[in-house]
Structures are given as structure tokens and as C-alpha cells.
Write a structure and sequence with these properties.
about 525 residues, alpha/beta, seven-stranded mixed sheet, three-stranded mixed sheet, globular
């Protein structure tokens, strides 16, 4: 068979190539996110206890990075190439799932929306795991739908894909587990049991080496416990307020994903409800989409999500791309009945063009402008810091996720970099101090400054001019819009961070700068 004359090959291959070619020219120049840097550090030393990367570990993602690292030295480049590769694969998977759920035309439209989605496009240009997450989500959904329809041979592929997804990002396994369980409905008990065994084996193949490289189960468990008590938001009395708070980022991230298609999706949903045409989707499809969408949405509403990570939405966006394509078809048919004209092509092209414009020209968190601004601002910060001698200068950074402790630790390995993250858990436990030197991460109860360190630098995005002006001997430099570099003698660091525990060592003498 000549594959290049086979439509079943040419169309998905073309979608893959278009996706890849539209990503390559716009790759970010620096590791974008705090987590991106942690995965880059893990290429050299994988250790969840020092957050390389942070729990739950992204083990297979880092190992895939190590495979690419055999051929590509730069960590940012290799992880972006992984993002680009999986962007193309995700679009192809969306096409196949859309075709399977509805028909080929709708699969093509869903794929086109995915290619031009600002959120999808953005995550294809940076070193971040979420586009890989999106691919496995779509593939698992495809195999689950096939299994659900009675094609039980796909249950093994679904179990394998679910297990691999857990090794990439364990929350994907958790969120899609209900969909996988439901797809087993009607299968013989022995085959159900066997599918659990397959899933367990796949999970064991990555979890056992991950635990070994972390120092064992107890070390892994303690690292995860520490992360949860200092970052998870708990408390029943606050849940209603939190749901209001976290629903805003979720909606925003969905809009970044679907783009202009959100209007068609909303209008179609409203019209279906108003006209009581709820049977337009079969019961099987309704259950399928609900089990795909609800677990992650409820988790984000209940537990919370970081407002600076739009990639969280990529686990549900493939479903929304397909539903948007179906909404386009439904709404255009409705308009055709009213006007006698077919608006399907014009509406589809409008969404695609608007989404392209949103990626290149909007101020979205998921825009090309955001990538360029990040690269420029980080470059300015690094150049400003390098004017100070690394032998006698220490850097202190609060937990900013885009220009933070990890970025300076990675790009300025000769400097001592300290993370100023002074948090107290509900239990009263204080968070340990993270610091880095020569791309190595260390954890200590307090900050110990060697005697050769004379100066401090603080990189901050807070407007702190009034505060710094009251600290005699401290200086402030404007780096870029909203970013500042503060410098001064090391003994003044406690004037800026009075709650920080610091010991300044002079030869054999230890002076306790502050103690609580």
C-alpha cells in the first residue's frame, strides 16, 4: 500500500505537520515556568525530595527528557521539542476522536480549532508538561469510547495509556479513572480483572524506579506530605468562598483554550436548553463527556488551582474542542433553517482567524506576547545580576513562578540563590529553606551565609520603593516594567525580611542575625 496516496494517512499527517510548522518559529528562549526549571534540573539528578521535580514527580516526562538529552544538550530546547511533538500528536488524536464520536468533517474542525487554540499553541512553545497531558487524555478518551461501545480489544490499550499517563502526571490517571471504569461496563469479570492487572503492571514499571531514585517510599511520602501541607488549601468552612475564587481561573483558562469558539459553544448550549433538545446528544455521549470533564473540574473547584498555570485546562480542552465543532454544526443548521443560508464555513473560519489573532496580538496569559515578554524580562534580570560578583553576592527571591528562585539557580549557577518562602502550616510546622549553588539544590532549617558573602540581591515584582527607602544602605534598580533589583550589604537582609532566620558566618564566628 502506498501510504502517501492513502487519505487516512495524508489527512492526519497533514494536521501533524501544520501543527509542528506553526510552533517551531515561536519557541521560547528560556525555561518558562518554575516547574520547567525543576524538570530541567532533574535531567542531571532526579530527586523528588528536593523538588527535582516537585511531587508527584512527572517521572516518565523527565525520563523522556533524558532520552532527548542524548541528542540535544539544551534542556529548554529539548523540552520544547517534546511539547511541539505532542502538540502535533494531540491534534491528530482530537481528529480521530471527533471522527469517532461524530463524523470526519467534525473531527477536522475540532482539530483546526485545537491547532489555533491560544492555550494549546502557547503550551506548544514552552517547556511544560501540560501538552503531553493533553495528548494522553485524548488517547485515553478515544480508547475508552471504543471500549464503551463494545470493542473490548481496546481495553488493553486504554489501561496501558492510563498507566503511562500516570507516569507523566499522576493526576491524569486520577481524573480519567472514572471514565476508564465506566468504559468497562458490560465486560466479562475476568477481562475487567485482567485490565486492572495490566494497569497495575504499567504503573509499577515507572513507580518502582521513581521511588528508588527518590530514596524510597518514606522519603517520597514525606516530600509529598510537605508539599501538601504548605500548598494545598484545606478547610471546610472556606470551601464555598474558594469555589467562587477558583471558578474564575477555570473559566479564564477555558476561554484561553476555546477562544472565539466559546461564544458558539455557549449559544448552542443555551439554544439546546431553551428548546429542550437535550436528546441531541445520545445518553452514551452525555455520560462520556461528563465523566471526562467533571472529575478535574470538581477537583479544581474544591481543592484549588494556581491562577498562573492555564495548562490545567488542557486535560478538558480536547473535549471542548470537539463539543465546539459540534456546536458549530448545530448552530449553523439552526441558522440555515431560519435564513436559508449556510454559515458553517464562515463561522468556522472566523473562529480560526480570531484565535490566531488572540495568540499573536492579545494580552492573554497564553499569547506570543507573553512568551516574548518573559524572555525579555528574564534576560534583563540575568544581565543585571551578572554585574555583581558571584564570589561575594547572594541572591534572595520570593516564590515567583516565572522569574524565581529556580530560574536564577539554573541560569546563574555560580551564585548562591535562596528561596524566601516563609510559610507556616495549619499544624504550626515551618517550611524548610531551599537554596541552590552550581545547579545543586539543598534544604536546611535556616539560612547560613558564608563569611565571604558581603552583598545581597533581591529580585522582586512588588512595588517596594517606600520599604527600600527606609533601609539605609540599600539600593534599588528598575529592571523592566514592574520588576526591581535591590542590593546592599548582607547584614541588611534582615531589614527587608525581618521574619527570616539567617546566620551570617565570619570565619569561625557565627553571628545570629535574627532568631525567633
Amino acid at each position: 500500500m502506498n501510504y502517501f496516496k492513502n487519505r487516512d494517512f495524508i489527512l492526519p499527517f497533514s494536521l501533524f505537520v501544520i501543527t509542528v510548522l506553526t510552533r517551531i518559529p515561536f519557541m521560547s528562549k528560556y525555561l518558562y515556568h518554575w516547574d520547567s526549571v525543576q524538570c530541567a534540573l532533574a535531567l542531571e539528578k532526579y530527586d523528588v525530595t528536593v523538588h527535582q521535580p516537585h511531587p508527584p514527580g512527572f517521572f516518565l516526562y523527565v525520563m523522556l527528557g533524558r532520552l532527548f538529552n542524548l541528542f540535544i544538550e539544551d534542556a529548554n530546547t529539548l523540552f520544547i521539542l517534546i511539547s511541539i511533538l505532542f502538540s502535533g500528536l494531540t491534534v491528530v488524536a482530537i481528529y480521530y476522536l471527533g471522527r469517532e464520536l461524530f463524523h470526519e468533517k467534525l473531527g477536522i474542525i475540532a482539530a483546526a480549532i485545537a491547532i489555533t487554540s491560544p492555550n494549546m499553541w502557547f503550551h506548544g512553545e514552552i517547556a511544560f508538561i501540560y501538552i503531553v497531558d493533553s495528548f494522553f487524555t485524548t488517547v485515553i478518551a478515544f480508547f475508552c469510547w471504543k471500549t464503551y461501545k463494545g470493542e473490548h480489544k481496546y481495553v488493553w490499550l486504554a489501561a496501558i495509556a492510563l498507566g503511562i499517563a500516570g507516569g507523566m502526571r499522576i493526576y491524569t490517571l486520577i481524573f480519567l479513572f472514572p471514565l476508564w471504569i465506566f468504559s468497562l461496563k458490560g465486560m466479562p469479570p475476568k477481562k475487567i480483572l485482567a485490565s486492572f492487572v495490566v494497569l497495575g503492571i504499567v504503573c509499577a514499571l515507572w513507580s518502582v524506579p521513581m521511588l528508588h531514585m527518590t530514596g524510597g517510599w518514606n522519603a517520597y511520602k514525606e516530600a509529598y506530605r510537605e508539599l501538601l501541607i504548605f500548598t494545598a488549601v484545606l478547610g471546610v468552612e472556606r470551601q464555598s468562598a474558594l469555589m467562587r475564587l477558583y471558578s474564575t481561573p477555570i473559566l479564564k483558562f477555558v476561554i484561553y483554550g476555546v477562544g472565539a469558539g466559546i461564544f458558539i459553544l455557549g449559544l448552542a448550549a443555551y439554544d439546546i436548553i431553551r428548546r429542550k433538545q437535550l436528546t441531541i446528544l445520545s445518553r452514551k455521549k452525555i455520560v462520556f463527556f461528563l465523566l471526562w470533564l467533571l472529575p478535574s473540574l470538581l477537583f479544581y473547584l474544591w481543592v484549588g488551582l494556581h491562577s498562573g498555570i492555564p495548562g490545567y485546562a488542557l486535560i478538558i480542552l480536547p473535549a471542548l474542542f470537539i463539543l465546539t465543532a459540534a456546536s458549530l454544526e448545530y448552530f449553523s443548521n439552526t441558522l440555515k433553517q431560519l435564513t436559508g443560508r449556510n454559515f458553517f464555513t464562515s463561522m468556522t473560519l472566523s473562529i480560526i482567524v480570531i484565535n490566531i489573532c488572540l495568540f499573536f496580538f492579545s494580552n492573554f496569559q497564553t499569547s506570543y506576547r507573553e512568551i516574548r515578554n518573559h524572555d525579555r524580562n528574564l534576560s534583563i534580570m540575568i544581565d543585571a545580576i551578572m554585574k555583581f560578583n558571584s564570589d561575594n553576592t547572594a541572591i534572595f527571591v520570593e516564590p515567583y513562578i516565572f522569574y524565581g528562585f529556580r530560574h536564577f539557580q539554573y541560569y546563574l549557577p555560580d551564585y548562591r540563590v535562596y528561596l524566601v518562602d516563609i510559610r507556616i502550616a495549619l499544624s504550626g510546622e515551618k517550611r524548610k529553606m531551599f537554596w541552590g549553588l552550581n545547579k545543586q539544590t539543598y534544604i536546611s532549617e535556616e539560612i547560613k551565609i558564608p563569611g565571604n558573602i558581603d552583598n545581597f540581591l533581591i529580585v522582586t515584582s512588588d512595588d517596594i520603593k517606600d520599604k527600600v527607602s527606609k533601609i539605609k544602605g540599600a539600593h534599588i534598580n528598575n529592571l523592566s516594567k514592574g520588576d526591581f533589583l535591590i542590593s546592599g550589604p548582607i547584614n541588611l537582609i534582615i531589614d527587608y525580611f525581618p521574619e527570616l532566620q539567617v546566620r551570617i558566618q565570619n570565619g569561625n564566628t557565627v553571628n545570629k542575625a535574627t532568631e525567633k
